[in-house]
Amino acid sequence: MIKVAINKKGYILGATIVGENASELIVQWTIAIKNKLKIKNMASHIVAYPTLSELNKRLAGNYFIPVLYSNKVRSLVRFLMKIFGKKL
């Protein structure tokens, strides 16, 4: 299980990892906290695939799912589709 605390501006405040291989996974989060990185930095981080580190990237990416599927984004996409049609 991985749990990450993030403030409203997207900065990573802390991380807890429980389970097998937790020591491998926590390293990236401690570096992110020490360097005052935002969750978007973890989501765009390039890691070797397939490895356990990919879990950290997926977790960070999940933070943005509610934003991507919000009504505001859907309205913007509909508007752009009306303007550009199938060109997008």
From TrEMBL:
Record keywords, A-Z: FAD, Flavoprotein, NAD
Gene3D superfamilies in the cross-refs: 3.30.390.30
UniProt key word Cell wall biogenesis/degradation: no
One example of a Gene Ontology biological process annotation: 2-oxoglutarate metabolic process
Nucleotide-binding among keywords: no
Molecular-function GO terms, alphabetical: dihydrolipoyl dehydrogenase (NADH) activity; flavin adenine dinucleotide binding
Domain (Pyridine nucleotide-disulphide oxidoreductase dimerisation): residue spans on this chain: 4-55
PANTHER family: DIHYDROLIPOYL DEHYDROGENASE, MITOCHONDRIAL, DISULFIDE OXIDOREDUCTASE
Protein family: Belongs to the class-I pyridine nucleotide-disulfide oxidoreductase family.
Name of the featured protein: Pyridine nucleotide-disulphide oxidoreductase dimerisation domain-containing protein
Organism: Francisella tularensis subsp. tularensis str. SCHU S4 substr. FSC237
Classification lineage: Bacteria, Pseudomonadati, Pseudomonadota, Gammaproteobacteria, Thiotrichales
